[in-house]
Amino acid sequence: MNSHSVNRRTNTCCAICESSNRASICSACVNLRLNECRNNLKSLKAERDALYAKLSEALVKKGKADDQENWLLLRKEKIAKMREKLQLRQIQVSQGKAKIEKMSRDIKVKNELLDKARGLLETIRVEQMEKNYPNLVCTQSLGHMAITSERLHKQSVIVKQICKLFPLRRITMEGERKDGFSGQYDTICNARLPRGLDPHSVPCEELAASLGYIVQLLNLVVQTVCGPALHNSGFAGSCSRIWQRDSYWDTRPSSRSEYPLFIPRQKFCSTGGETSWSERSSSNFGVASMESDKKHALESSRSGSFNYASASPHSMQTHKDLQKGIALLKKSVACITAYCYNSLCLEVPAEASTFDAFSRLLATLSSSKEVRSLVSLKMASARSSKQAQQFCKSVWKVDSTISSSTLAESAVSLPMTRNGFEQNVPSSTASFLAELSDTGKIETAIEGWDIVEHTYPPPPSQIEDVEHWTRAMFIDATKKITNSRK
After folding, report:
1. Which residue spans within 315-406 are E strands per DSSP?
2. Is the pTM of this model over 0.85?
3. Where would one find coiled-coil regions in this protein (predicted)?
4. 3-state SS class at 173
């Protein structure tokens, strides 16, 4: 150290090393000072970078905090506005409810007043009709009775012809038959109907034929009695089909599947399920499958058993579709049976089967006298006691002053003076008497009846005599009208 410094002093003239007042500085001193400054700058730079990182992190945190605070402020403002709107809506809803309640009370009061006024007007109208036009009420009632009687008579004739075409009865087969079937069966055209939902309870040929007959019979009965039909069907003899209709007013099928009412032949039912016997695209309704009556049915034996274990999936689906078709057909038969029994105010036989009750209904509908008696009892029970007394006083009284001439006068006076009392006479009465006076349709339905000049009503217990008297009165009234116009 000392030798080096000695050499430096001897070699250089440094103002720093030699502590002199000379202006020259050696390079070693310069480098030393530069290294010190460099190290100092590095430490300061590292400290600056650390402080800058801390500052950046603090700024990021502060920015996030500011954003969150601003978001909270905005949310609070929105919540406050929504609360104000909610309070306003609640006030409006409460006001609306109060308004609706007030309107409901007003409407209720008005409806009560209208009901009272309507009842009063109806009472006044009935009193005026009974006071001024007593024969008009009798004429309308008698006309309704005559039209109903004629309609029921024609309906019974049609139903009787249908029953002759498709005889439906219940038989009992005693002993063991060759085909292995015995016991009680419902038959149509001597073809046995299945028991319950088992399609194998009867031979396949009789099954297809009987279900086809039932489909056609049901279609004819529905059209005749104007009853509800729960199904649509494609009648094709022993290859008929059935499907569920969408509603009572819409006859379109409710689903894409239609059910057969027959057991398909083996030729048309392979195990692969590639046949189209159940598809709705087939338009021949299975007629092409009726090649021979002696072909074997699909996995069905003459003993009426069905082997579920050995049956193929397609055979099982065939069996299920056939059961669904039978169930839908029976449901539709039960519906039309209940409808007709209710219209006649009769109870459906509880002990009878579906087809047996249907056959009893057809027997009742085919009897004109029985149906007329039931309808007469229904009309008598529906009429109130006061109306019945007035009706008996005005119609069934032996010494009544109502004659054929007064009936004719009441029938003629209505179209002539309609403008005078249009508000007092119902439109249905006017239309009935207008048709009675303008057209002679009633005369065509009552040929062969004797006309009595001054007829008196018989006791109401004799239904046939009442009908005879009613028709005679109408003939006399219409002839009087025609003569007066001429």
Report:
1. none
2. no
3. 27-61
4. strand
